[in-house]
From TrEMBL, chain A:
The keyword Transferase does not apply. It is found in: Membrane. It is a multi-pass membrane protein. Belongs to the UPF0014 family. PANTHER family: PROTEIN ALUMINUM SENSITIVE 3 (PTHR30028:SF0), UPF0014 INNER MEMBRANE PROTEIN YBBM-RELATED (PTHR30028). One of its GO terms (cellular component) is plasma membrane. It comes from the Bacteria. It holds the Pfam family UPF0014. This is ABC transporter permease. The chain crosses the membrane at residues 12-29, 41-59, 65-83, 92-115, 190-212, 224-245. The keyword Transmembrane applies. Keywords: Membrane, Transmembrane, Transmembrane helix.
Amino acid sequence: MKEIVDIGIGSLALGFLLMVIPIAGFIYFKVKIVKETVIALIRMVMQLSLVAFYLEYIFAWNNAWVNVIWVCVMILVGTFTTIKRAGLTYRFFILPFAISGFISILILDAFFLGFVIHLDYVFDARYFIPISGMVLGNALNHNIVGISNYFGRLTKEQDLYYFLLVNGDSRKNSLAPFIRSAIKSGLNPLIATMSVIGLISLPGMMTGQILGGSSPMVAIKYQILIMLAIFVGCSLNLMLSILLANRFAFDSFGRIKANLFKK
Amino acid sequence: MGNMIKCEKINLSFPGQLICKDLSFEVFAGESICFSGPSGKGKSSLLKVLMGFITPQSGNIQIDGLELNSDTIAAIRNKMIWLPQNSNLPVDSANELSDLLQMNAEQVERFQQFQDQLGVRECGFDKSFAEISGGQKQRIVLAACLSLDKPIILLDEPVSALDDHSIDLLFATLNSLPDKTIVSTSHNKKWIDYCNRTIEL
């Protein structure tokens, strides 16, 4: 198997030259996202450099507790990011979103790493951390879309919710149209991605594995599994997030709490 | 005839606005009452109090023998239907409405009958609400609510978008349901005259 060609720091820096194109476009069209783009780039470089640094240690150490704590940190960061991006208030949503993330990862890792791949050591950092990260990273994006849709519509169309609450036969049914819409909006992009994967997109994990020296067949099998894990993880996380958040977002009379969104 | 709704010493106010002070009233089964008064006086808010959407500062509310609180609210709502003001719901057809209300076959059949009685049969189930008038939409929503066959009917400004002929059809429809208890809000004279009693706010 061929050794992967390492990228020198100079070559890596050279890659940044390409950023001139989008930034020139932003300036030309007066799109005010240059500052945000530069900040995001700096954050990406710093975060990934840090990740590389501590993953070296975490992989070398390969201790179950450290790995579990690391995944829990990822779940918490995902929770805070979802709440912030959806514009919600922290106090109602930290617990339900964190629990949803934790349950989703627990089920997925146990199933895929334990039953499907048959790892002897499920908490092996080389599998446990990247696969949890892939699932959580994707779940984050889709959760933000689904959760924003759910609470946004529920607040904007609360007349419909209250109408169904009185005229319908249960609170569950009065929330059903909002839950359906949230799940659709959250998962539709993922269904679209899944249906064209390999045709117009080569997923990052597969590309990484091939670059890392794996055979395309092995890389594809992993990719299929990871897509399944991502889809199940995103669906599970979104549905659980909504169901658990419902316990905090309504009062005992079924009324939508007034301060769900950050002012 | 027993009372269906009993309110005792209801005090309700919003910042800078007093809605009612020590308001007590009873509504008997089969009776129709109307909260009347100028716009912005809180007529709709009183209906929302009965549905548990607004909690008054003080007072007791009993509906069909149940004290209104968080434990009984689901059972109380199951005894009610509510036609909101303007029926400005984000719903596009009678079909969608029956889906949202998860109507069974019997309720769908009654829905059609009430559409007939209220003079909106020609709108059918599939016609988009964007193609019909506000009054027609309001009558379709009312037909859907009535088909659920619950004992208490809450109507918020039921005739605000209706012409005289449609109001007569509404009276005829409600007259065919003598055992229902109706609580409404309106400042329409024809409607006020139709109701058994009026509570002025």
